[in-house]
Amino acid sequence: MASRSETGKEPVNEQIVANMYASMRTELNQIYSKITELEMEASEHSLVANAIQPLDQSRKCYRMIGGVLVERTIKEVLPAVQRNKEGLEEVISRLNETLEKKKKEIAEFEAKYKIRIRKSDSDVQDDSSRKEGSAQGVLVGPASK
Q1: Over pLDDT 70: what percentage of the chain?
Q2: Total domains in the fold of the chain
């Protein structure tokens, strides 16, 4: 017997609604993670392009292609790096559109089923302790006269 959610009708009970909501939130988090990963890659491409752009175009450089280090010239590598960066930026923009659609879908789902996220008492206490310890890693010595 198939559940109603599988046939496209309304979910049967609260547990199914909760599972669907958790699944949607997981998908949203995966999109966030992928966007972050691709933004870091695009940033690395920018750093490389900015570093090699002012150099002599006939100078040797090395590029990793499919796990193999290949010797090329800057003249050959720079356009490829810039193309890859543009491709990454295009994928990031598509993922951002998908992210916005998913956010709307989740908001509609929350409104439809009146879903509210509650923080437990331990979460609230953890947040306050994080705020207090946010300046960790900085050492200040006594002022010298």
Answers
A1: 75
A2: 1
| Per-residue confidence (pLDDT) for residue 8, from 0 to 100 | 57
Answer yes or no: is 131 within a domain: no
Q: Encode 70-108: b = buried (16+ Cβ within 10 Å), e = exposed.
A: eeeebeebbeebeeebeebeeebeebeeebeebeeebee
List b or e across 13-29, with b for residues whose CB sees 16 or more CB atoms inside 10 angstroms: eeeebeeebeebeeebe
Is residue 67 situated within a structural domain? Answer: yes
Residue 75 is assigned to a structural domain of this protein = yes
Q: What is the tens place of the pLDDT at every residue in 69-103?
A: 999 999 999 999 999 999 999 999 999 999 999 99
Assess if residue 6 is contained within a domain.
no
Tell whether the model's pLDDT for residue 24 goes beyond 50. Answer: yes
Q: Distance between CA 118 and CA 125 in Å, rounded?
A: 14
